[in-house]
């Protein structure tokens, strides 16, 4: 299979400070969770972050029974151009604007064509909110409630290119590689990992960082009740897959780290997988009977 060439995006010119958040939203309480998210954004900005990533489906909470029972109350509506004008999110608008920070916040989104998606909303420093990305890889029972996203997306902050993924997307090496092929310097992943999944949680996102020699910002939910109890461990990984910061398995946290262009350049020079990647995997594979 032929693979697309890696985009030759220049390295960023200056560091970027980011925050990975772990927190415990209340199922179905979109306005209350928006207020909590605004407070977390202010904490992140106070620690110097210019980008903060909150967990998957943070606004309605990742609680399938509530998402199934009350779609009208848990969803936010997007316009044809992806704008979100829901007044319940006004605290997010104010937090982004007042703190000059870009927020990546998980939501359930109803589109004009009636598709329902698990999405990453982007609240930018102007106070605007729009749909940034719709989750492409749906996990388990999500397929009964949501439609899969149709395309990848890259968030541009100054001259940093930050690919967007959501939880199960990060379990597929091809998803992060598509972001890297588009020139991404980092990969932002709002997620919802359940208790008992710590091994996979910590392995997948470190691997995506090293696979693609890029930073990974992993946010996760905490708290909840079985079977929807979440295990924290939010982290920022460097381009070799080492955690710069990592949260505990429980408790709210705002974890701040700085993405360094020099470290990115040094890693890509020492580990040149992106540059060395072949255009395809060669002739058909050989079967070797034993």
Short description:
The protein has 290 residues and is α/β, with parallel strands linked by helices. It contains 9 helices and 14 strands.
Q: What distinguishing features does this structure have?
A:
single chain; 290 residues; alpha/beta; 14-stranded mixed beta sheet
Can you offer a commentary on this structure?
With 290 residues, the chain is of the alpha/beta class. The chain contains 9 helices and 14 strands. Strands 1, 2, 3, 4, 5, 6, 7, 8, 9, 10, 11, 12, 13 and 14 form a 14-stranded mixed sheet that branches. Helix 1 (30-46) links the parallel strand 1 and strand 2. Helix 1 (30-46) runs parallel beside helix 4 and helix 6 (173-181) runs parallel beside helix 7. The model has no long low-confidence stretch (mean pLDDT 96).
SSE layout:
Layout lengths: L15 E8 L6 H17 L4 E3 L10 H6 L1 H4 E3 L12 H10 L2 E9 L5 E8 L5 E6 L7 H4 L8 E4 L2 E5 L8 H9 L4 E5 L7 H15 L2 E11 L2 E4 L3 E3 L5 E4 L6 E7 L1 H10 L2 H4 L14
Parallel strand pairs: 1-2, 1-10, 2-4, 3-4, 8-9, 9-10
Antiparallel strand pairs: 1-14, 4-5, 5-6, 7-8, 10-11, 10-12, 12-13
Cα(first) to Cα(last) distance is 27 Å
Number of helices: 9
Q: Level of helix content?
A: 25-40%
Mean pLDDT, all residues: 96
Decide which structural class fits the backbone: alpha/beta
E-strand count:
14
Q: Approximately how much beta-strand content do the residues carry?
A: 25-35%
Low-confidence stretches: none
Q: What is the approximate shape?
A: globular
Largest sheet: 14 strands, mixed
Q: What's the order of the H and E elements?
A: EHEHHEHEEEHEEHEHEEEEEHH
- Rg calculated over all Cα atoms: 18 Å
């Amino acid at each position: 299979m032929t693979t697309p060439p890696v985009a030759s995006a220049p390295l960023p010119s200056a560091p970027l400070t980011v925050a990975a958040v772990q927190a415990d939203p209340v199922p179905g309480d979109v306005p209350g969770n928006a207020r909590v998210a605004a407070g977390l954004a202010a904490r992140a900005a106070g620690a110097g972050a210019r980008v903060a990533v909150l967990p998957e489906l943070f606004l309605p909470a990742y609680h399938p029974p509530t998402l199934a029972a009350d779609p009208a109350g848990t969803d936010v509506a997007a316009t044809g151009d992806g704008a979100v004008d829901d007044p319940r999110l006004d605290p997010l608008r104010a937090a982004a604007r007042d703190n000059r920070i870009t927020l990546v916040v998980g939501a359930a989104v109803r589109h004009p064509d009636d598709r329902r998606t698990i999405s990453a909303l982007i609240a930018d420093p102007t106070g605007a909110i729009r749909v940034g990305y719709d989750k492409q890889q749906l996990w388990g029972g999500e397929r009964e409630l949501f439609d899969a996203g149709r395309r990848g997306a890259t968030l541009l902050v100054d001259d940093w290119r930050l690919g967007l993924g959501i939880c199960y997307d990060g379990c597929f090496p091809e998803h992060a590689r598509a972001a890297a092929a588009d020139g991404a310097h980092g990969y932002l992943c709002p997620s919802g990992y359940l208790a008992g999944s710590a091994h996979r949680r910590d392995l997948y996102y470190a691997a995506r960082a090293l696979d693609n020699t890029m930073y990974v910002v992993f946010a996760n939910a905490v708290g909840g009740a079985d079977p929807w109890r979440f295990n924290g461990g939010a982290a920022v990984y460097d381009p070799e897959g080492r955690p710069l910061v990592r949260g505990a398995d429980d408790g709210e946290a705002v974890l701040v780290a700085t993405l360094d262009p020099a470290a990115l350049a040094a890693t890509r020079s020492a580990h040149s997988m992106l540059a060395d990647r072949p255009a395809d995997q060669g002739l058909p594979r050989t079967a070797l009977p034993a």
